[in-house]
Amino acid sequence: MSKAQFPSIRMRRIRQTDWVRRMVAETRLSVDDLIWPIFIRDGENEREPVTAMPGVDRLSIDLAVEAAKKAVDLGIPCMALFPNTHPDKKTADGNEACNPENLVCRATQAIKSALPDIGILCDVALDPYTDHGHDGLLEDNTILNDETVEILTQQALNQVEAGCDIIAPSDMMDGRIGVIRDALEFAGHTDTLIMAYAAKYASAFYGPFRDAVGSGDRLKGDKKTYQMNPANSDEAIREIALDIAEGADMVMVKPGMPYLDIVRRVKDNFHIPTFAYQVSGEYSMISNAAEQGLIDRQSAIFESLLGFKRAGADGILTYFAIEVAEILNS
Ligand code: PBG
């Protein structure tokens, strides 16, 4: 009788040809897995490259609508919109976040009226709007929690009234999911989805994003009093449990690649739609390494995204979404 060891067992048998490798693949990447984050700016017919993110542009609203059209044609289910707010509109309290005519609201309205069938996700956090670059209200070097939650709730309602489908609080204040959920219910927005940036770490990999939204140069200090310590894992589980209890429909882990263990723990523990954000620094590392000929761009992109799926993510926010969807569709 053959024994369960070499040579009766040869692991390479299932790797020998493309067809068998495809047949035994445990995870797959599909266009349905992709959420595409884009940056919005003022003006018309404006496309302004983000220096820190080669290949990514800030788009005026008319071009954002065209971009959304492309996403719909490729089958991408959802886009995330981030505003590059004019410096004149940035204040200490970030109250431009609550202006119904702000960039992100106008972009949401324009995209939803042209393309009602694509999901629109909007961040809830004050950093695109504050003159100090923090996600919350700053007083004597402290980020005020409860006062920030109040303004975030107004921001969320404002975005929902503009047509946003998914509210994604990325601010990491305590208790905000519950307060926002109650406010949405009270206002009759019973179907609004909440994707909580539930386990969001204080990360160096957000650097290029802060350039894209124009908050990087302003940021005083760091975000370590509200974003998580990269050393911690159990704490992420507590954060996720709280956000689910407070009414989140979906949760997110962020950044992506250095935190795949967290994605796996979350998926195994909670069985809830779980997303990962391949953040700006991850995008720029892959892009720049490929640009310099150090790695193969397409293989590196697909390997990185498959890694998220293997870790248990149901979907990925990625700046590569269009490029990946084009390849998957071809
Ligand atoms: C805002 C926010 C950040 C990102 C998404 N929402 C930056 C930050 O928290 O400093 C980062 C996304 C990226 O790096 O691609 N709170």
TrEMBL record:
InterPro entries: ALAD (IPR001731), ALAD_AS (IPR030656), Aldolase_TIM (IPR013785). Keywords: Heme biosynthesis, Lyase, Magnesium, Metal-binding, Porphyrin biosynthesis. GO terms for cellular component: cytosol. PROSITE patterns: D_ALA_DEHYDRATASE (PS00169). The active site is at K200 (schiff-base intermediate with substrate), K254 (schiff-base intermediate with substrate). Its EC number is 4.2.1.24. Pathway: Porphyrin-containing compound metabolism; protoporphyrin-IX biosynthesis; coproporphyrinogen-III from 5-aminolevulinate: step 1/4. Pfam families: ALAD. It comes from the Bacteria. The keyword Lyase applies. Mg(2+) binds at E239. One of its GO terms (molecular function) is porphobilinogen synthase activity. Homooctamer. Belongs to the ALAD family. This is Delta-aminolevulinic acid dehydratase. It comes from Candidatus Micropelagius thuwalensis.
